[in-house]
Design a protein that fits this description.
The chain is mainly α. About 80% of the residues lie in helices and about 0% in strands. The chain contains 17 helices and 2 strands. A two-stranded antiparallel sheet has the order 1-2. Belongs to the multi antimicrobial extrusion (MATE) (TC 2.A.66.1) family.
Length: about 500
Amino acid sequence: MGSRKAIDNSGQETPEPPPARSRSSCGFEASHELEKVLSDTEKPYLSRLRQASWIELKLLFRLAAPAVMVYLINNSMSMSTRMFAGQLGNLELAAASLGNQGIQLFAYGLMLGMGSAVETLCGQAYGARRYDMLGVYLQRSAVVLLITGLPVTLLYISSKSILILLGESKSMASAAALFVYGLIPQIFAYAINFPIQKFLQAQSIVAPSAYISLGTLFLHVFLCWVVVYKIGLGLIGASLVLSLSWWIIVAAQFVYIVVSDKCKATWTGFSWEAFSGLWEFVKLSAASAVMLCLETWYFQILVLLAGLLPNPELALDSLSVCMAVNGLMFMVSVGFNAAASVRVGNELGAGNPKSAAFSVFMVNLVSFIIAIVEAMIVLSLRHVISYAFTSGEVVANAVSDLCPYLAVTLILNGVQPVLSGVAVGCGWQAFVAYVNVGCYYVVGIPLGCVLGFKYNLGAKGIWSGMIGGTMMQTLILLWFTFRTDWNKEVEKARKRLEEWDDVKQPLLQ
């Protein structure tokens, strides 16, 4: 389908504005007001800061609150699946955790990372009010991710051999592979869900996804109970229900896009243009994927290394509980990651450098404060957290010993993912990928292996090294963000949109 166009007074074609959307209009007006307040040097500094903070907090929480809810609920589906598996026995808990953290997170990181390319483009295009470009970006991203899902499927099919090759026991690898086989349909749900999610977030449409995810969570828990306990399908049944739940979310969100008036200007139907410019999109998606995959796989490697320790079942059980809690709390940061990406992308696309810089400051401050609170709660509940997953006292003691490391990780997660969201909003994925390689894989993992195996510190040593890598990466991103020239970033955003518009535009003639 062709894009909706209008002719302005100068004879130029401009994208037709969306139908009346008071919320979006208010968002653009608030964004313009924020830039005006920050630029008004006649007002006292504290007065400008107070007024700007109030404007930014309203914009931020309107995005972050539903986004946090979406990611928390989606993570809760995965965590509840592991809980059902854990009630079958310690082997089943370890197998589900190994399959989830060791194999499934590979696909999650890859697909979410590649989906971040559409987040950069849609966020900046929406800020520049080039609404017709968003639907094509969504479809182009879905095509690229669906094709990527094919080799990932082969990885899932080979998961048993891979885990044995990595040193896991045959019984553990067999049980984990059984769980992974049921997650194969989930790969392709990811391939469609993440572009849809970023498409909606770029337009500040987040609440519908939250309601859809919440309804699906209740259905998921019920179906897990029926399939695992009543029908008795065990691990494979639990993972198949998880795959089905993700497809329900995808279908419901797509129906919303098609029928909602809020997406009429940005979704004009399926188009053959989605199959054009794929190679350019693959290159941008690859940079995004490398950036996020290196982060996602980092703690995935922690779980795999734990499987090589003496008494691997206890190490995996205790780590899986801590990683489940970390994953749940991490979703709060990911929600702010999404909000940061949208806010920065929109402001750069709209040509508001001061607003973009101020948004970066506010979103990091709020996320960091929340992370401190999370860490305090975890430490206060360190002796009882594990009983939500398994009734074993030995596991509970091991989890209690690891909780201080979990608390430090949560505090770092209050800043690091948000800075990654800023990077996506600005299009810095390639730079962050290099930083991640150095900090995580040159420093963090080798240091963790030395502490864990050579000095016999076990899971604590592995985790300590990886915390060091995360801290190093966070400090580098903080320094780079602090030194950013936001006027130059506005100009880069304008050039990027022109470049991508050229890829698409000849097909409309």
